[in-house]
Specification:
Blueprint: H1 9-50, H2 54-81, H3 88-102, H4 109-119, H5 126-153, H6 164-172, H7 177-200, H8 206-221, H9 232-243, H10 248-300
Helix pairs in contact: 1-3, 1-10, 2-3, 2-5, 2-7, 2-10, 3-4, 3-10, 5-6, 5-7, 5-8, 7-8, 8-9, 9-10
Length: 301
């Protein structure tokens, strides 16, 4: 007898395929509609990037694409602790679908899509258990961003003090230590990506500047008022860079390049994730049909 909280496998696969397809269609439509307003910013980013080291910008793009992989692995581990089962590639692909939507949509609509896809891997009652995991994740995230802010504002001699909040949270989260460590991956990779972009643009002290820029980008992402956070993220990065001593014009150009690269990486990673989800679902449907036919043949013998 089926458990009351469970859903038929075919229905779950159909919902997941429909949601993945709708996310791809929405992203494509939004890209067409937003192109007139986005094109000038892309041209400005291309002009600024034309003077930069192309290989370093390519590396930064790969790092930006790797950041959501860390978040997907966090979800995988949290789902496992809540009693569910989900492979690493599947978790990253489901998370990446949300990255595709967030690249074009305001108001964190991509977060809604990725949560719906990832929650399907939870067993009945798993949603209550996963809340405790995300308490630890948010604590690590806040401590990490707070540490970055301290590192950007404190004198260089006392910068190690910025690690105190993070060390305290990791000590408190000892039962979920592996989960807490995984939660560190995405922000640290993002710092590396931003530092690589700034180095490619010949900005002074790129690592220290990146430490200041990443909290500004995360703060801007809290209230995504525009589709894909266009204008808001680049402005936040420019303000942080100007506060670090970069000239206003150079800070604005760097902010535009940063946001363009991050958005481009999100689109590429998100599109690949959505296609991977659809391909996996089609393969699973085919296997289910094969098993059903084999069972039917065996039953009729």
């Amino acid at each position: 007898m089926r458990r009351s909280g469970a859903q038929p496998g075919g229905l779950r696969l159909g919902r997941r395929a429909l949601l993945s397809f709708l996310c791809i269609a929405f992203a494509a439509g939004a890209a067409v509609l937003a192109w007139p307003s986005v094109e000038p910013r892309l041209e400005a980013a291309a002009r600024a990037a034309g003077r930069a080291d192309g290989r370093m910008l390519a590396l930064a793009g790969l790092l930006f694409a790797a950041a959501p992989i860390g978040c997907g692995l966090v979800w995988q581990h949290a789902i496992g602790r809540a009693g569910g089962r989900l492979g690493g590639i599947d978790a990253c692909a489901r998370y990446g679908v949300g990255s595709l939507v967030n690249s074009f949509a305001p108001a964190h609509l991509g977060d809604v899509a990725r949560t719906a896809l990832l929650f399907e891997a939870l067993p009945p009652g798993g949603r209550r258990r996963i809340v405790r995991c995300f308490g630890a994740i948010e604590a690590v995230r806040i401590a990490t961003l707070g540490g970055l802010v301290l590192a950007a504002t404190l004198p260089l001699e006392v910068t190690p003090l910025a690690l105190v909040p993070l060390a305290a949270i990791l000590g408190i989260s000892r039962p979920a230590f592996r989960l807490a460590l995984l939660a560190l991956v995405s922000p640290l990779v993002k710092v590396a990506a931003v530092a690589t972009v700034l180095a490619a643009l010949d900005a002074p002290a790129p690592v220290l500047a990146a430490v200041a820029v990443v909290p500004a980008l995360e703060l801007a992402a809290l209230v995504p008022l525009t589709p894909g956070n266009v204008g808001v993220a680049s402005a936040a990065a420019a303000v942080a860079l100007h506060a670090r001593g970069l000239a206003s014009a150079e800070a604005v150009q760097a902010g535009i390049v940063l946001h363009a690269l991050e958005t481009g990486a999100g689109i590429v990673f998100g599109t690949a994730s959505a296609l991977l989800c659809l391909a996996g679902l089609c393969g699973r449907r085919a296997r289910q049909r094969t098993v059903a036919r084999s069972s039917l043949v065996a039953a009729t013998r």
